[in-house]
Structure formats: structure tokens, C-alpha cells
Amino acid sequence: MRSFRTPALSAVAAAALIASLSGATLAGTSSPAVAAASPDLSLTNVTAHLQQMQSIATANGGNRATGRPGYKASLDWVKAKLDAVGYTTTVQQFSTSSGTSYNLIADWPGGDPEHVVMTGAHLDSVAAGPGINDNGTGSAAVLEAALAWAGSGNSARNHLRFAWWGAEEQGLLGSNKYMSLLPTADKDRIDLYMNYDMVGSPNPGYFVYDDNAVGNFARDAMTSYYTSKGLPWEYIDVQGRSDHASFRSYGIATTGMYSGGETTKTSAQAQKWGGTAGQAFDPCYHRSCDTISNINSTALDRNIDMIGHMVWLYADQDFGTTGAPPTGANLLANPGFESGATSWTGTTGAITSNTGRPARTGSWKAWLGGNGSTSSENISQQVTIPSTATTASLSYWIRTDTAETGSTAYDTLKVQVVSGTTTTTLKTYSNVGTSATYAQFSHSLLAYKGKTVTVKFLMAEDSSLQTSFVLDDTAVSTG
Fold first, then answer.
1. Secretion signal: which residues (predicted)?
2. Gap between the Cα atoms of 310 and 257, Å rounded
């Protein structure tokens, strides 16, 4: 990671900026496959990747810096791992003041080529040391996520692309080169870029990027994940310090995580995260001691699982065909259920403040299912889409948990639109691939402009073993 050049916005200012914009994305009206369950990525494997990077540095003058043989050896090793499991890899060569550098791009076959989800990290170290935390950790974590996806047997709704950048330490040269050469149409196909730069700092913090307003849907998914694991987190405005900035400058949604560098951990941060107050998050930042010993395995293990979660989640995200969601007023009444069942119809008791399952915000939510017996529950609300709408979307946050096992969909939740006598299912969730972390999904309603329709959530549960589908913070917005 590059050193900070300019002061960051305060967390309050950044949050205020981002809160002024909507972060969901529109979706089409097809019914996608249910998202696969998030993986538990192997710390053993990631540690082995880091040991290999250490060995490469040791054999090549003690570093893996751009223009030095250790960098090219690192890239060749990562490429070989990806080629072996079926990725289509591309090496992009470019010149720097320190010599030739390279980007490595790996595409997983399949997925919608019009909707690309990218995950990346910079592969180069500084010349002073092997760069095992900065940024062997991010590079190894992204590599393991890519390898785990290849071995999972899952099919992605979106096209998955992974990247390892050269010459980040010289000013984001690799990611800037990639974006400068990418045709505009291909830039427009990238729905999300996630960046992981230093995720195993020895005196760690848990900082979530908060400097891209159009990426707040992914930022919120990341913070929800940490919250679900009982891990405190803080926002950080990374500005131009890492490779996400090359994507952000083109209006692409970005997010990422950072475990801390040369800045000092405060007493308050040490109290919530552990570690040593008054000491840098990474005392070996950009130094020769950034070796395989300069890693906090607990933080690394937590963060690689978060990275796996984000890849799995956005592999299935319905980004649709019309770009960013409308930001107009919410046409749904009582969208967060805080007034109980007011304005909603359906199963009595489905909208509840029961603490057995958490609301995403406030105290009330819609809890469908969780009975462990044959049952059907629903909630619905009628809404009119203006005839003048140029964009329209239904969005909501959902979390699920189940006692079922295996790959058979015993219990389901259908998201539907009823127009006259026609019922259209926008998406089906089931007990397969559940996630107890809230995630946001959106679906286009533009086909219904000028019509009054009913938005409906319909749950069906079989005779045994519960599945709970919990909804909160719904919206129908137009622009």
C-alpha cells in the first residue's frame, strides 16, 4: 500500500457524503440460481502462499519489487496456480521508471459478461523488503478465493475476474494502466471492484473503505459481515492510496478492507480490537522486517473468510441491465416495518419485533418461516409506478438461516410482482446457500410503469426443519 499523501476525510464526513447517495443496484426480472453458501477459506493454504512469496523474495535479493526478478517470479507462480484450475489468464506488460512490470488478470469461464465482478490486490513489494503483509496477504487471500471458487462447483450469475497489480507502490501504475487501456464498453461492464491491500497486519484493525458513494451497497455488506461475526470495524477513507482508486475514478463501485499500516493504534482501538496501543498497526510497514513473521494469523483468518463471503455474495448479485438505482422517494409505506403491519397485508404476525431474529435497522422486520412445519406465509403491498418513470426498482435486505442440510430446496421464499392476473417471480431464495448476514438485492420494475401492482413476498416451508427468511428496509423507488 502506498503512503498517505493527503489527509483523509473524517468518518462522519465520509458517511454523510455516502448517505446522500443510493448504493443498491437494479436487477432484471429473471429468477437466478440461489446463492452458494460462503466458504471458510483455508488459513493453511493462504499461509502456504505467503511462505512461497517469502521464498521467492529470499531467492531474489530479498524483495518482490517492480522491475526486480522477485516480482516476475511471484507473478509466474500465481499465474501457474490459476492456469492449473481452469482460469483464462492474461499478462499485461508495461514500463515503469524501475523497469518492466506486469499485471495478471484471471477470468473464470461463464457468468454474464455484461456484469463483471472484480476482486484484486497489488502483488509488488517495495524494494526494502519482501512485502509479506504489504501486500502478500491481500494477494494470497485473493488467490485462495479464486482457487476455492474454481474448486467449489458453483456457477456464477456474474462474470468473475481476479487481478494482481504491478507497480502499485510506485503510484497505482498497474491498475491505472489496465483501466486506461480498457475500452469504455468494458469499463461499463464492471459492476463492482473489491480491493484487498494488507489484511493481516501484526497489530491489526478492521477498516472498511468508505470513499466511494456508488459502492456503499458493497461497503454495507462488508460491515454487516463483520457485525455478524462480532467484530468491531471502522470506516476509512483510503483516497488514492490503493488500486481501487483506478476504478473509482471511472465511476465504478468499489470497496475493500485494510488492517492498518504505519499509523498508530489508539487506546480506544486497542480496547476494542486488542493489540498494543501507541504502536503502529504494522511496525514493519515498507521495511525489511515485513517477512512471514510479520503476520497476525487471527486477523488474516477472519479477513480471508470475509473476502470469500464477498466473492460468493456478489457472484450471485442481480445487477440487472440499467445501472445505478433511482434515488427518488420510496413509494412503499412503512418500508422498514417500524409501524408494525401498517400498510402491509398478509399473514398475521409475520411482521414482528420478536428478538429471535435481528432487524437490520430499528426493531421490526418481516420474519417469514422459521416454523419447522408445513406452512405458507406472505406479506404484500400495492404500489403505483408512475407512467413518467425512467427507472424503477424494488429493493430489500434479506438474511436467512436454516436447520436443513444438503442441496435440496425444501423451503422457499419467492419475491413476486402481481399485475392484474399475472404473477411474476423475480427471485427465489431457499434453504440452500443461506447467509445470516443481511445482503441487499434489487429488481427492476420499469416494465410496470403506469401500472398499479402488488409487491409480494411468499414463503413456503415443508414439514420439518425450519428455514427463516427475514426481510427489512424495503423500497420501491423511481427516477
1. 1-27
2. 11
Q: Are 100 and 190 members of one domain?
A: yes
Confidence of residue 76 (pLDDT cuts 50, 70, 90): very high
- Asked if residue 356 and residue 307 are part of one domain, the reply reads no
Identify whether 3 is part of a domain.
Answer: no
Whether residue 94 is found in the same domain as residue 169: yes
Dump pLDDT digits (tens) for 186-234: 898 899 999 999 999 999 999 999 988 778 889 999 999 999 999 999 9
User: How far is C-alpha 473 from the geometric centre of its chain's CA atoms?
Assistant: 19
Query: From CA 111, how far away is CA 316, in angstroms rounded?
Result: 9
The region that residue 144 occupies, defined by phi over 0 for left and psi between -120 and 50 for alpha, beta otherwise, is: alpha
User: Is position 42 within any domain?
Assistant: yes
Same domain, 114 and 25: yes
Residue 437 domain boundaries: 345-478
Three-class SS state of 443: strand
- The answer to which of 88-102, 130-144, 415-429 has the lowest mean pLDDT is 415-429
Gap between the terminal Cα atoms of the chain: 39
Backbone angles phi, psi at 313, to 5 degrees: -60, -50
Task: Give me the active site residues, please.
Answer: 168
Cα gap 277→115, rounded to integer Å? 43
Q: Please give the C-alpha separations between residue 434 and each of 205, 294, 302, 444, in angstroms, as whole numbers.
A: 28, 35, 19, 23
Residues 221 and 284 in one domain: yes
Cell 502462499 appears where? Answer: 49
Question: Radius of gyration of the chain from Cα atoms?
Answer: 23
Cis peptide before 135 (omega within 30 of 0): yes
Q: What nine digits make up the cell of 436?
A: 445470516
